[in-house]
Automatic annotation (TrEMBL):
The lineage of its organism: Bacteria, Bacillati, Bacillota, Clostridia, Lachnospirales. Gene3D superfamilies: NAD(P)-binding Rossmann-like Domain. PANTHER family: ALDEHYDE OXIDOREDUCTASE MOLYBDENUM COFACTOR ASSEMBLY PROTEIN (PTHR30388), XANTHINE DEHYDROGENASE SUBUNIT A-RELATED (PTHR30388:SF6). Residues 15-73 form the XdhC- CoxI domain. This is XdhC family protein. InterPro entries: MoCofactor_Util/Proc, XdhC_CoxI, XdhC_Rossmann_dom. Pfam families: XdhC_C, XdhC_CoxI. Residues 186-329 form the XdhC Rossmann domain.
Length: 341
């Protein structure tokens, strides 16, 4: 969604109106679920996707018509058996799409795009709220910034916002809410070859990365152009450099077992939601023994550590290992989001 807001700014500067097509409900086996979005301009799809195939094609045509009418609307698409066969898909079902007309002269939308970028940079938890009854009703909400935009949102809805996309219908309102920004950070301990492959891949799927090392040459920002920050730290005293929350992920890949062990001992004292450590099963046994015997770690706590880190895809090269780690973190992020109410 960050990219979509950035593109909205770029297109508005060119005086181009847009339509934001968002899936607000789906049933059956559909390619994309609620919260999927695409931007459509006068020449067709600009960015994003709502699943491709028949639904996306028909939605794009509707969006072009909406650009002419300058009115938002909602439409339900039904994929029947013939539709599915014609586009070579195995997916079928119903998809409800809300088409929101975005006028390039609308100061509210411009303000929201600017505010969204600020919230993304500051790593805030925040939500996009769309009024499904209004032509251009849209707001952002964060605990720190409050409500920005032109939608009057009842306090009962603000207090019940969750990680899941949700439609709130009543006699007085019809709102769609979705968390589009999260405070979670990925802390990568060690700036070696795997880290240099890992950070750009994580960044490409919207993970906010900070790299830490105790060697100046491995905290050079030029090595990690996609990282939010690089920190020269003392691995023995991580609390002097960072404060880890329950929304944060940790990847441990320092230059040696000794430092990996020191870092793990400290991470187990934090509420980090993910602790992944590079290495073999043989290394795991030795490190776990040290954590228990030398650092007094409860054996039950060791279950929080994922090592060898990454999905088991027979990865060997630094790039392959980075892909396996990213896949695992995407999985953990999705599971956490599904579990949040």
């Amino acid at each position: 969604m960050r990219t979509l807001f950035q593109i909205i700014q770029q297109e508005f500067q060119k005086e181009n109106d847009l339509v934001l097509a968002s899936i607000v409900a789906s049933s059956g086996s559909t390619p994309r679920g609620a919260g999927s979005r695409m931007l459509v301009g006068k020449k067709g799809r600009v960015a994003g996707t709502i699943g491709g195939g028949s639904v996306e094609y028909r939605a794009e045509l509707m969006a072009l018509d909406i650009l002419e009418k300058k009115e938002s609307c909602e439409h339900e698409f039904r994929l029947n058996r013939k539709d599915v066969e014609n586009i070579g898909m195995i997916c079928g079902g119903d998809v409800t799409v809300f088409f929101q007309y975005l006028d390039h002269n609308d100061p509210i939308i411009i303000e929201l795009a600017v505010t969204a970028e600020t919230l993304y940079k500051e790593r805030k938890d925040f939500w996009l709220i769309c009024d499904l009854h209004a032509t251009s009703g849209m707001s952002l909400y964060s605990a720190s910034y409050g409500l920005t935009g032109n939608v009057d949102v009842p306090s009962s809805i603000l207090s019940s916002l969750s990680a899941r996309p949700c439609r709130h219908r009543s006699e007085t309102c019809d709102l769609f809410t979705e968390q589009i920004g999260t405070s979670g950070t990925v802390y990568v301990f060690g700036g070696g070859h795997v880290s240099q492959k890992l950070v750009p891949i994580l960044a490409s799927v919207d993970f906010h990365c900070i790299v830490l090392d105790d060697r100046p040459e491995f905290t050079d920002p030029a090595l990690f152009p996609d990282a939010a920050e690089t920190i020269l730290c003392d691995f023995n005293h991580l609390d002097q450099s960072i404060s880890i929350t329950d929304a944060d992920y940790c990847c441990v890949m320092t230059r040696g077992h000794a430092y990996d062990t020191i870092v793990q001992a400290q991470l187990l004292a934090t509420p980090a939601c993910y602790i992944g450590v590079i290495g073999s099963l043989a290394k795991r046994a030795g490190v776990f023994h040290r954590l228990v015997e030398e650092y007094g770690i409860d054996e039950r706590e060791l279950d929080r550590i994922i090592t060898p880190v990454g999905l088991n895809i027979k990865a060997e090269t630094p790039a392959e290992i980075a892909i396996s780690i990213t896949g695992q973190m995407i999985q953990v992020r999705a599971e956490r989001k599904a579990a949040m109410k």
